Amino acid sequence: QQYATFNSDVLRIFSLDDLITDLPRDNPSAAHLPPALIGERLRLGLAASDRLIVSTQPLLDAYRHWIDDIRLLPNRLSTDLWGGVRAHRRHGAKARVGWAGAQQHAGDLRFLLDIVRATHTEVDWIFLGMLPEGTEAYVTEYHPYVTRLAEYPAKLASLDLDLAIAPLEVHPFNEAKSNLRLLEYGYLGWPVICTDILPYQTDDPPVLRLPNDPARWIAAIRERVAERDALARSGDALQAWVHRHYLLESHLDEWYAALTR
After folding, report:
1. Stated pTM of the model
2. Distance CA 178, CA 76 (A)
3. Which of 35, 118, 160, 195 could bond 168 through an S-S bridge, CB–CB 3.0 to 4.6 Å?
4. CB-CB contact of 33 with 23 (8 Å)
5. DSSP H helical segments within the chain, as ranges?
6. What is the distance between the alpha carbons of residues 247 and 79, in angstroms, rounded to a whole number?
7. pLDDT grade, residue 108 (50/70/90)?
8. Residue 217 to residues 114, 119, 122, 143, 241: CA-CA distances in angstroms?
9. Cβ–Cβ under 8 Å, residues 180 and 75
């Protein structure tokens, strides 16, 4: 509001990557950001802005009536940040299966306990950033989250996964998320099992989408790690998909148009 008052000739752009007006109960911010309060603040912020940039179609649909100028620019990976990063497949006796993320995913990871417990003698479970509650005794490696963005790609790559997982709780907040997790895994050439939810359906990525049914995930993990060569080919296919659709440097003209008059 102060920018609108004192720098009214400067283009003011608001950016949103989450459905912040509908947080899941398990999100740590939910208790401090009740929908009515955050909705009021967002409306005030958008009223003082010239343009809103969002990363997904559900976000555009949710907020298109809150501001006249709204642009959809999907999340993409910058080769400046990711270009020099490489991951390796270990080809060990056990496949390395894992997940990476921040601390707000308790609800997304909750159903993994039965999966990890059932398969921990068959695969090595690797987690970065957060452990599903109750899995401590069954996980081979846990790595604390990296807070510096510049260090994250190399840290993620160092997990050297054979199979990555991307579970999401079915909730409007997650339906409005981007497919960033698939982009990061795919850039490193890792095949993925994920929840069958809108973000992971976008542009039809070559991943295995499943309902959040532990029995289905357990069977799928066992089936895929039994065929390492096929698993590697699936990772290569996802990597090619990411390079085809989601490299930032191929879409700079869209960002330039969105960030200028």
Report:
1. 0.93
2. 10
3. 195
4. yes
5. 2-6, 35-47, 57-63, 79-82, 106-109, 112-119, 152-157, 172-175, 180-187, 214-225, 228-245, 252-258
6. 7
7. confident
8. 10, 10, 14, 23, 23
9. yes
In the chain, DSSP finds a helix count (H) and a strand count (E) of 12, 9
Instruction: State how far the Cα of 228 lies from the Cα of 223, in Å rounded to an integer.
Output: 10
- State the chain's mean pLDDT as an integer: 93
Residues 6 or more apart from 61 whose CB is under 8 A from it? none
| pLDDT value of residue 30 | 66
Sign of CA dihedral 226, 118, 97, 233: positive
| Upper half-sphere CA count for residue 137 (Cβ side, 13 Å) | 5
**Structure confidence by residue, pLDDT tens digits, 166-181:** 999 999 999 999 999 9
Phi, psi for 31 (deg, rounded to 5) = -65, -25
Q: pLDDT per residue over 192-241, tens digit each? A: 999 999 999 999 999 999 999 999 999 999 999 999 999 999 999 999 99
Q: Which of 112, 133, 129 is nearest to 215 (CA)?
A: 112
Please count the residues of the chain. Answer: 261
